[in-house]
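Task 17 of the worksheet. Students: predict the tertiary structure of the chain below and write it out as structure tokens. Keep your answer in the requested format; marks are given for formatting as well as content.
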Amino acid sequence: MSGRPDSGTGPETADSEAAAGQDESVDPQDESVDPQAASVDPRDASDDLLDESDGPLAVSDDPWEDARRARWTAVGTGAALTLAGLAAALLRLARSAPALVPAAYAGGAAVCAAAAVLGSRGRTRRALWLLIAGVMVMALGDQFD
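Model answer:
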């Protein structure tokens, strides 16, 4: 057992251990125990991740809608990272920094712009990898600063 020797178990752990011990001792053939009270109806438990009516985690049945959403996400992210990379390149160019730093930011921004173009054409997986590569180029340029 690892951890601090003076740490005790919290009430949540103690309650779950007690409940686990009680569940093993219940006989399903025993008529004195109400089977409806012991069982949980899976329809009563609401799972927020699978609920189709709420928010961005909802999965639609239409694959065209999912593809459209992926394209817009790739285009938006690529455009935002392109603007951020160009702004950082201009800021680094305005002050005294090695020439490699603004070049790396501009190069990373160009890669992110290419990712936005690929994303708009439906190549979202390639766009994702180009976005990652573009951000890595920008981060590498930041290391030279």
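Marker's comment: Residues 46-51 have pLDDT under 50 and may be disordered. Helices lie at 11-25, 35-38, 63-94, 100-120, 124-143.
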